[in-house]
Design a protein that fits this description.
Helices cover 62% and strands 13% of the residues. By secondary structure, the protein is of the alpha+beta class. It has a three-stranded antiparallel β-sheet with strand order 1-2-3. Helix 2 packs antiparallel against helix 4. The protein is rod-shaped.
């Protein structure tokens, strides 16, 4: 009992000594079988302390050994109700359930279980390789999914950008066409007003003449066609033909290629045609 106790030498002896500090013991490694029949090697550590010296001395013999064996059996029982894949996920729950089982049984031994921790879980070598391959395939799967999602997002972004660019271009072209149409309408209205206010349409004739001269200049510059200037006397067809022959002869004399001279003939033939006209 607590307090001062007297002991008669030789007759009385100290039978049990207990340390009331928190202590730790290693739970030896052991084999356990999961719910899906996979053999595991598992070990742990147990933290405990004595709370009642009388119970620890007289209710159980070798309380530390009893507590260690109880921890091993409890650990095997908890592993047997879960599958291998959940063993590593449920480690925290396993520790809690084993600790509760030990606390309930060790209370009558005057021992309090503070906590229990699983140190290591070792599956068989074949299972370890399978788990590594499974983890690697899962990582590759996630990587492939992420890459495909990135490519999909990139394609969507590009398509969205092209769509927006096409819409903006179409809107710009439509606005440009509308502005050009408005400008043409405004120009036509201005021309119409000018024609109405211009007696004899002098301005219109002048503008048409400018356009005509620009067109003629372009034709005579870029084309190989010989254009005869209009004659004041539109009824004199003979005069225009003679003028054309004169121009054609001048071109042949300046650029004599042989074929042109053969086509035109000798000067005598040309003079004969001119006299007949």
């Amino acid at each position: 009992e607590p307090g001062i106790n007297l002991k008669i030498p030789i007759i009385d002896m100290v039978a049990y000594r207990h340390n009331f500090k928190e202590q730790v013991i290693n739970v030896d490694s052991q084999n356990a079988i999961t719910k899906d029949n996979v053999k595991l090697k598992i070990d742990g550590v147990l933290y405990y302390k004595f709370t009642d010296a009388k119970k620890a001395s007289y209710n159980v013999k070798n309380p530390i050994i009893a507590l260690s064996l109880l921890a091993q059996t409890s650990m095997r029982s908890e592993i047997g109700v879960i599958e291998l894949d959940r063993t590593f996920e449920e480690r925290e729950n396993l520790n809690t359930r084993i600790k509760e089982t030990l606390s309930h049984a060790s209370e009558m031994w005057g021992i309090e279980c503070m906590r229990y921790e699983i140190k290591d879980i070792q599956p068989p070598e074949e299972i370890s390789r399978s788990m590594e391959l499974q983890a690697e395939s899962e990582r590759m799967k996630r990587s492939a999914i992420l890459n495909s999602e990135g490519e999909r997002q990139a394609i969507m972004n590009i398509a969205e950008g092209e769509k927006s660019a096409a819409i903006l271009k179409a809107e710009g072209d439509a606005r440009k066409t509308f502005q050009e149409a408005r400008a043409i309408i405004a120009a036509l209205e201005t021309i119409s007003k000018s024609v109405k206010n211009d007696d004899g349409m002098v301005s219109l004739k002048l503008k048409l003449t400018e356009k005509y001269l620009e067109a003629m200049n372009k034709i005579m510059t870029d084309s190989k066609v010989v254009v005869l200037p209009p004659s004041a006397d539109t009824s004199s067809l003979t005069t225009q033909i003679v003028t054309g022959l004169e121009l054609y002869k001048d071109i042949i004399n300046n650029n004599d290629t042989g074929a042109a001279s053969a086509l035109m003939g000798a000067d005598s033939q040309y003079n004969e045609i001119k006299q007949k006209l």
